[in-house]
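Notes from the 1:1 (GR / supervisor)

We went over the backlog. Supervisor wanted to see one worked example end to end before approving the batch request, so GR pasted a single chain during the call. The sequence is below; no edits were made to it. Supervisor asked that the structure be written out right there so they could see what the output format looks like.
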Amino acid sequence: MSDTPKNRLLEEFQSYLENVDLSQLASEQPPDLHTLLNEIAGLKSEVKAEARQFKNTLETLTVALNALQSDNKALTAELALHETHLQHQRHELSRTILMDMIDIYDRLLVGSAVLQNYKPAASFFAKKPDDRFINSVKEGQEITLKRVEQLLQRNQISPIECLGKPLDPHTMNAVEIGRDPKLANGIVIEELRKGFLFEKNVLRLAEVKVNKL
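Structure output shown during the call:
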């Protein structure tokens, strides 16, 4: 410490000693030890009471938090179950609608085949058949059939390829037996009713005729 700050401190201390009333300091009573101990004991009790209250509050919050977490888990499980049930309902509803669409497609396909093979019988008394009318009906049927096929494709429905392939029990149902010595055993030789896949899952099994030697 430099001399200047040191001298300043000494001067301030000397001035304090000259101005202080020592008789007044001597007349002041020292603190009562008994009173001091009582105050310390009271403060200690207050600290303990505050600690107990804090502990009780913490325990209450812990119980509330555990109950909230338990309720949250139960709610999450219930929501997951509800979502699964809802998805199942949607799937079943979609399946029902798609099966109705396939039923319409089957009817149109049969009607188109009938029109394609239709040959009016000639009769001496009957008028000449109107080929233009028959052809227009055929064209209308084919257009409608193509629109339904496009609708099925947009809904991710695709036909199961069967002809010339081995019987697949997961996608095909053998309802008739045929015999063709040129083909191997178990090969599909005719498709009796189309089968369909929906999002790579079987929507309807194909009904087929299978070769058996």
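Supervisor's comment: Residues 6 and 97 are 102 Å apart (CA to CA).
Batch request approved.
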